[in-house]
Amino acid sequence: MDQPTTGPLLADRLARAIALGGPIPVSQFMAAANTHYYATRDPLGAGGDFTTAPEISQMFGELIGAWAADLWDRAGRPAVAWVELGPGRGTLSADALRVMAHAGLTPPVHFVETSATMRVAQAERVAGATWHDSITTLPEDVPLIVIANEFFDALPIRQLVKRGETWHERLVACQDTLFLPIAGTSVPDTIIPPALASAASGAIVETSPASVAIMADLSARIVAQGGVALAIDYGYDGPAVGDTLQAVRGHAYANPFEAPGEQDLTAHVDMATLRLVASASGAATYGMIGQGAFLRALGIDQRAAALGEKVAGDRRRLVDDMGELFKVIAVTHQDWPRPAGFGA
Predict the structure, then answer these.
(1) pLDDT at 45
(2) What whole-number distance in Å separates Cα of residue 226 and Cα of residue 325?
(3) What share of the chain is helix, strand, coil (3-state, %, to 5)?
(4) Average pLDDT, integer, range 41-57
(5) Per-residue exposure over 47-61, b if at least 16 CB sit within 10 Å of its own CB, e if not
(6) For the chain, where are the E strands, in sequence order?
(7) Per-residue model confidence as pLDDT tens digits over 126-152
(8) Which burial class, exposed, middle or buried, applies to 338 when counting CB atoms under 10 A from its CB (0-12, 13-18, 19+)?
(9) In the chain, pLDDT over 90 holds for what percent of residues?
(10) Measuring CA to CA, which residue among 313, 321, 30, 322 is closest to residue 150?
(11) Residue 192 DSSP SS3
(12) Is cis: bond before 239, omega within 30 of 0?
């Protein structure tokens, strides 16, 4: 089995590819960088680059587990499969499964994860899981309970930049060892959302074909099989103008075009578009709401009070600090009940 390529060699390979074939799309640069990044390390926690909500407090996964058990109970307690996309260390699922078991829900666990490094960490927390490289091999004979927490933000985005009156694909060029974004070939105006077509010169519009494709496939499965998908992520109500591509390294923001493969690249998620894709598939959709409002509706304040003073800071990070930046949507089969947390 080939060993992962080291960070500097990835940068060298990208530089050579650009020298030979010309600048590459932002989406290609982001995909190559994140594929290498997640394959070669555990990026989570104090010793890594960032911390996700499940790693902040057990309350996050516990509330998701209670949410899932409640919906499953009101749906008639069918046989289901638990699925997490990009499950990190498996912490969310471990906490959720523990709570679900108390309610009588003990589903088989399926993780969609391509990183061998992260699969090892997940196996330590969740015994008996089945791993998948993509959603195409998930079970087809039972409803799915799918959790996607900070999953879509790491998928590659396409950036379109306006120069004068013309829109261009944003590309990544390389000068010596310096990667930098440039305006590439022009694109038809018809691919720009009409509401954004008259944006000022210099404006950037982002799309994520990979996210749209995954949501379309997930929604089609839920319509065919039953179940629910819950997506929680950096989110906005698009389409909108803005450059949200960012890098995090050592718990600090960095230049996203430096050190490809050595830092986490993310972009904010157009939750409105994902919701429209799900609706077009025939699924019922709920949200978008802030993570803070969602967790409060699920009872995080009462749970924090029960756990005592030591979790007050964790509750503040999840509800106040992350409460508006992170957005939540749910997608269900039309015959499934309305999920908790999304109002009456």
Answers:
(1) 87
(2) 30
(3) 40, 25, 35
(4) 92
(5) ebbbebbbbbbbbbb
(6) 24-25, 81-85, 109-112, 130-132, 144-149, 158-163, 166-175, 178-186, 204-207, 227-236, 246-249, 252-254, 264-266, 269-270, 284-290, 326-332
(7) 999 999 999 999 999 999 999 999 999
(8) middle
(9) 93
(10) 322
(11) coil
(12) yes
| 95 contact partners, CB below 8 Å, separation of at least 6 | 54, 58, 60, 61, 62, 64, 65
Per-residue pLDDT tens for 87-118? 999 999 999 999 999 999 999 999 999 999 99
- In 40-90, which residue ranges form alpha helices assigned H by DSSP? 53-56, 58-74
For 256, the token pair is 């996203």
Residue written as tokens 């912490």?
91
Percent of the chain with pLDDT over 70: 98
Entry pTM: 0.94
- pLDDT, tens digit, 9 for 90 and up, residues 176-230: 879 999 999 999 999 999 999 999 999 999 999 999 999 999 999 999 999 999 9
- Please, are residues 77 and 33 in contact by the beta-carbon 8 Å criterion? no
Residues 6+ apart with CB under 8 A from 310: none
What is the identity of the amino acid at 3? Q
Q: Which two tokens stand for residue 219?
A: 């929604």
